[in-house]
Every structure is written in C-alpha cells, then in structure tokens.
Amino acid sequence: MRRESIKRLVVRAPNWIGDAVMCEPALRGLRSLFPQAELTVVAKPSVAELFSNHASVTHVVHYDNQRLHAGVAGKWVFAETLRQHRFDLAVLFQNAFEAAFLAWLAGIPRRYGYATDGRAMFLTDPVAVPDIRRPVHQVAYYWNLLKPLGLKGEPMPPALTVSPDEEQMIEERLALAGISTSDCVIGLNPGSTYGVAKRWLPDRFAEVARRLVGRLREDEGKEAAVVIIGAKGEETLGREIATQINARTAVLSGTTTIRELMAVIKRCHLLLTNDTGPMHIAVAFGVPVTAVFGPTDWRTTSPYGQESGIVREPVDCAPCLLRDCPIDHRCMTRVVVDQVYETAVRRIERTTG
C-alpha cells in the first residue's frame, strides 16, 4: 500500500468502551503512518464520545445501530453516509463481520482488518488472526494489526483528554456533595454492564473505601471523599454502598455522560474497580488503579502498565469469560478485603505521598 496515496481514511472503533480505550494507542500509531490524511472515527454513540477533541482524529461519525441505523434499511443509510465521505481506506479495529460488510457496501476501495468472524471475503487486505494459544494484551492486539502497514515498536499506554471546562463542571458537581477541590478523591466502580460475574462483592467495596478514608485522615492528615460511578441500572448498587461508607460520598452511577465520566475519573487519586471500561479510562488519565479480576483474562485486559494493581485469586475455572457464574463465584468471593486494601494503599501512595 502506498501510504502517501491515502488522503481520507476511516477507522471503525470497537463497540465496548474498554476495548475502544485499548485501541487508542493504535489510533495514534495509525496517525503516525498517515500524518497528512483526514482520519475519521466511526463508533457507536457512547464510544464516539471518547474521541471528541482527540488530537489524532479529524472527524467522528456516530453509528447508531439501535435507532437510526437499525435493520437493513438503516445499514443502507449508513453505508451511503460513508460513501459520501469518499474514503480511500477503512481500518477495522472492530472485529465483527458487520464492520467489514458495511465498509464493502460503502464502496471503500481498501478495507483492512483482522480476518475474523468469516469476513475475509469483504477485506481487500485481511490480516491473519494471532494465535489464541499465545494471548497478548488487547492494547498490543490492536497495535499489532498495523504492523503490516509499517508500524514499528511497542505500544504506549492509552491517553485521553478532557477540556478545562469539563473539569470545572465536575468540580462544581462534586461541590454540591460537599467534596472540595483539595479533597483526596477515591473512586469506586462496583458494577459491570457485561455481567454480574465480573462484580466483586458490594460490602467489600464499601469496607475498602472506609478503611482508605480512615487511613488518609488519621495517618496522613488528609481529607478524603468517595465518588461512586457506574452505568444506568447501577444506581441502587451505588446508593447501597454509599450508606456503608462513613465519609462524604457522591453517587454518580447512571447520571453521567461518557465525557463527564472521563472528567470524574481524572479527578480521582485512585480508582477501585472491577474489570470494566472505566478501569481503562483511569489508565488513560494516569490514575492509579486497583482492579479485582475474576472470570476475565488478566493477561489480555489488565490495566495496561498498571499490572501491579490487579488483585485476583487463582482458581481452576478462571478465566471462564462467562457473564454469570454457574457455580459458587469462587474467583470473586475468595478475594478478601485485606488483599484489595493493601494493594490500594500501595497504589494511592503514588498520588498522595
């Protein structure tokens, strides 16, 4: 491929927030390969917000497969939208058949991506799928996709940005809960939209937060507060945990946009979390993470560059990647409060020491 001939390229981002964050280093790598090209990111609406004002991105196009672009008619409408941009190249970080089919339907002449999901016939430049017996981190998985195009080296950690206005808006919102700009903020992300199997026990989240607040106040003389985040449907979970924490607490579960969530996470001195999208957002802002892993594969979705923040209890059935545990959820119930608290103390010392 003559890279200088590519004037307009489109990137199909992954559908999940965590995956989209993990592909961000590859997005910057792609920009380095095509520095003069217009680079458009196509993503579902929630994921698209991650890339607003991203330095490598020229345009963001929303693919709303639940409403505007649902069904066969919606696919035709979206393909026509892509066709009007006259893209020279489509790079598909999203692995599904649909991504390649839509790029083909839109008449994009070069279509580049992993040959997954039976879609090789719709790719002009299929890339062999890595050997699943040798798992690599998802950040590297997306980065390695671009190596046949000439990308070299190893990926850097993900990086995201928010504006000063977005940061100020969050400070004002936290102030309504009595949390000041000088407070050390501990973030809790106790839910998971993927499934309940990824969730550590709520009362244990509360106990770790309570201990951390006490340690910061009594041992280090620092005022601390807790901010609980989560998706829609997790509001009750957030409120139940808040009632168990003896500290100023703001429950923002289900009440933030993705941009607001990004600003909240950036404000944190530590994020205590399950293996979810917000965990990867924290990494992208350099926020120390303590992450409880159970059914998911820590080798592929760990907080990139912060592997020492993982807490897990090895069990024979993990990683199973199931949404719901069919037995006794031992991968999570065997992770005790002391393990997570001690890891969190070591991590938070990076920002409060």
Following the backbone from N to C, one meets helices and strands in this order, namely: EHHEHEHEHEEHHEHEHEHEHEHEHH
Q: What is the typical, i.e. mean, pLDDT?
A: 95
Q: What is the third-level CATH name, the topology of the largest domain?
A: Rossmann fold
Number of helices: 14
**CATH homologous superfamily grouping of the largest domain:** Glycogen Phosphorylase B
CATH class division of the largest domain: Alpha Beta
Measured as a percent range, the helix fraction is 25-40%
Q: Main beta sheet, described? A: 6 strands, parallel
| N-to-C span | 50 Å
Structural category:
alpha/beta
Shape label: globular
Unreliable runs, pLDDT <50, ≥5 residues? none
Task: List strands and helices in order, with pairings.
Layout: E1 8-12, H1 17-22, H2 24-33, E2 38-43, H3 45-48, E3 59-62, H4 71-85, E4 89-92, H5 97-105, E5 110-114, E6 125-127, H6 138-145, H7 164-175, E7 184-189, H8 202-218, E8 224-228, H9 235-242, E9 249-251, H10 258-267, E10 270-274, H11 277-284, E11 289-292, H12 298-301, E12 310-311, H13 330-333, H14 337-352
Parallel strand pairs: 1-2, 1-4, 2-3, 4-5, 5-6, 7-8, 7-10, 8-9, 10-11, 11-12
